[in-house]
Amino acid sequence: MARANRHYIPGHVWHITHRCHKREFLLRFARDRRRWLQWLFEGKKRFGTCILNYAVTSNHIHLLVRDGQEGEIIPQTMQLIAGRTGQEYNQRKNRNGAFWEDRYHATAVEAGSHLVRCMVYIDLNMVRAGIVTYPSEWPFSGYNEIQNPRERYSLIDHESLMKLVGVGTMEALKESYRGWVGESLAVQGRKREPIWTESIAVGSEGFVRQTKAGLGIKAIGREVIGEKGVCELREPEIPYSPNIGDENDDLRHQNTYFWDISD
Question: What is the rounded CA–CA span in Å between residue 196 and residue 83?
Fold first, then answer.
C-alpha cells in the first residue's frame, strides 16, 4: 500500500485524514477526542489554521482546512496535534510505540458544491458507522458548531466557510447545511464515498487538471477520472483505507464534548 499523500498547493482547501496506528481504537474515549480538539484549537491560535470542518472518531480523524500562501500551516498544525496527543496518551497509559500512522492523507477539494459534499461526508461519518442517527448527536464533529457558533474557543472559520460555499449570512449557512445533510441522508444513506479519502484532488475537470499541473512531477502516474460531473486525481495505489465499520462498545450517545481549554 502506498504511503499517504500529503502534497500541498498554497491557497487550496484540503481534506486531511489521519488514522491511529494499525487502526487501533486509541481515540475511543471522549477524553482523548477532546484533547485532539483542544490541540487543534491550539494549532489555530499558533499558526492561524483556517478550519472549515472536522470529525474525531474512535480510530481516525477528518480535518477540512484551507491552506495559507506559505504552504506550511497544515504540516505545522498536524505535527503539533499528532505529537502532543500521542505523547499525552502514552504517558497516561504508560505505553510505548506509535499512536498515529506515519503519514496522513490530503485531498484537494474544489470550493462550492464539491466542498459541500465533502463537509457533509465528514459530518455523516458516525452515521455511516451506525453510532448515531444524525450528526448533531455526535459532539466531536463540526456540525453543531456550524449550527450554533461558539463565542469562545471556536474552531471553524465561519466567514471563510460562507465564502467558499457561496452563502451570504450565518442563518443562510445554517439552513442550507441542514438541508444538504438531510438530502444526503435521504439519498446516500450509509454509503461510503472513497473519493474523499483516496484521491489527491476532487472537483470539476478543470480544477482537477489544474491541481495536477500544479503538482508537476509529483503528479506523474496519477490519473484524472470522472463520474457524474465529479472528477478526481487518483493515486496509482490506494493510500488510505480506513476501517469505518462498527465502532466499539465504548462509544455512547451520552459522551458529551465539554470544552475545557485548561484540561
Answer: 25
- Produce one character per residue of 162-187: b if its CB has 16 or more CB atoms within 10 Å, e if not: bebbebeeeeebbebbeebbeebbee
Between the CA of residue 6 and those of 15, 20, 41, 89, what are the distances in Å? Answer: 10, 17, 21, 25
Q: What is the block-wise mean pLDDT of the chain (263 residues), using blocks of 10 residues?
A: 56 94 95 98 96 98 88 89 96 95 92 97 95 97 96 94 97 98 84 90 94 86 85 69 41 32 31
Round to whole Å and give the CA distance between 34 and 257.
Answer: 7
| Residue 150, CA distances (Å) to 100, 120, 156, 185, 209 in order | 29, 20, 9, 26, 38
Q: What is the CA radius of gyration of the chain?
A: 17
Q: Which residue blocks in the chain are alpha helix, DSSP H?
A: 30-47, 73-93, 113-123, 125-128, 143-147, 158-165, 170-187, 195-198, 205-215
Give the whole-angstrom CA distance, residue 46 versus residue 5.
24
All three cell numbers of 121:
461526508
CA dist 161 and 187 (Å) reads: 24
- Interhelix angle 113-123/158-165, nearest 10 degrees: 130
* pTM confidence score: 0.85
CA dihedral for 196, 57, 101, 39, sign (positive or negative): positive
CA pair distance 79, 104, nearest whole angstrom = 10
Residue with cell 448533531: 136
Cβ pair 232, 208 in contact under 8 A: yes
